[in-house]
Structure formats: structure tokens, C-alpha cells
């Protein structure tokens, strides 16, 4: 990893106010303006390729999280269940692991039965998503909901319930004509 990349990731980690107990906030882009999903490309920890190009036509949620974050950990069982329920309908979660060690994250994925791709955060992903979070990408968990039509439908800061995630997924699938 280049020193500049390591510095940028360290700066993001330091600047994030992680795991604060707060009411989840949802920001929806203005109804009159369609915002295209941010572009990204990465390799998941299982070796699979994950990119916005490969996800075209699918609804997905990009979820910035960490294994050491209690609200993040609380969301994962619901996300695993919802991934199994909605995957055949054209949906997936993509986990973005923040401030993590790869080996520790692989163990965390295995021990929690995570059934969706997880990638390690990098500067390209940070740069792609930060402009769409009000005030920047400052806390985790933060989720970016992408509709099947390729538009950014909402940004959600804070832990979500199963019902809240299910509603976001249904809306993203419907917006894309699924």
C-alpha cells in the first residue's frame, strides 16, 4: 500500500466519528434530480470482482461498517437474512470494511455467516461515496442505497432495523422496474 493511500485511509479513520448512538438519518436526493450511483471497482475478500459496472440493473446497498462497531455488528444478522431473501430478486449488499485488518475481517465474515461481498475500504471508494453523504462520510454504519435503474436513491446514517432495510430494498427494486 502506498504511503499516500495509507495516510488517506488513516485520515478517514481518524475523522470518522464511529459508532455513535444516534437516531438513523436518511437523506434522499431531490426528487427533481436523478443522481447516478457512484462508480467504483474493487476485489472482495472472497476474490470476486465487485464494481458498479457489474452491478448495472441490480439494486444494491453499499454498507460502510467495521467489526469493532457495535451498531454495525447489530445490523449484520438482518443483512444476512435479507441478502438470502432478496438476492434472487436482483439485490445485493456490498460491505465496505473500514479501518480493519484483512485476516481479522475474513474471520469476522466467516464467524458471522456474511453471505454478500465484503471489500476493504480504499481511497477510490472513499472518494466515490463521500460527496453523497451530508457532511461527508463521517460515521459508521452508513449505507448508500442504489436502485436497479442505477440511481442513488438514499443515504442512511446509523444502524437500521430489518424492517427499515427491507423497505429500502423494496423501494430500490421498485424504482428500477424489478
From TrEMBL:
Keywords assigned by UniProt, alphabetized: Cytochrome c-type biogenesis, Redox-active center
Keyword Cytoplasm: no
Top-level division of the source organism's lineage: Bacteria
Main location: other
Subcellular location: Cell envelope
A Gene Ontology cellular-component term: cell envelope
Residue ranges occupied by any Thioredoxin domain in the UniProt entry: 31-174
Single GO biological process annotation from the record: cytochrome complex assembly
UniProt xrefs under Pfam families: Redoxin
Any one GO molecular function term: oxidoreductase activity
Protein name: Alkyl hydroperoxide reductase/ Thiol specific antioxidant/ Mal allergen
Species of origin: Prosthecochloris aestuarii (strain DSM 271 / SK 413)
Organism phylogeny: Bacteria, Pseudomonadati, Chlorobiota, Chlorobiia, Chlorobiales
Amino acid at each position: 500500500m502506498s504511503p499516500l493511500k495509507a495516510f488517506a485511509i488513516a485520515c478517514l479513520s481518524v475523522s470518522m466519528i464511529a459508532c455513535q448512538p444516534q437516531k438513523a438519518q436518511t437523506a434522499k436526493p431531490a426528487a427533481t434530480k436523478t443522481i447516478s450511483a457512484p462508480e467504483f471497482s474493487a476485489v472482495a475478500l472472497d476474490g470476486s470482482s465487485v464494481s458498479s459496472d457489474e452491478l448495472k440493473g441490480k439494486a444494491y446497498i453499499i454498507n460502510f461498517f467495521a467489526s469493532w462497531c457495535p451498531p454495525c455488528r447489530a445490523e449484520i444478522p438482518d443483512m444476512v437474512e435479507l441478502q438470502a431473501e432478496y438476492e434472487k430478486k436482483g439485490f445485493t449488499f456490498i460491505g465496505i470494511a473500514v479501518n480493519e485488518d484483512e485476516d481479522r475481517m475474513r474471520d469476522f465474515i466467516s464467524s458471522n455467516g456474511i453471505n454478500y461481498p465484503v471489500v476493504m475500504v480504499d481511497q477510490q471508494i472513499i472518494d466515490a461515496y463521500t460527496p453523497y453523504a451530508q457532511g461527508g462520510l463521517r460515521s459508521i454504519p452508513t449505507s448508500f442505497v442504489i436502485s436497479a435503474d442505477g440511481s442513488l436513491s438514499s443515504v442512511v446514517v446509523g444502524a437500521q432495523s430489518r424492517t427499515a432495510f427491507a423497505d429500502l430494498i423494496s423501494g430500490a427494486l421498485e424504482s428500477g422496474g424489478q
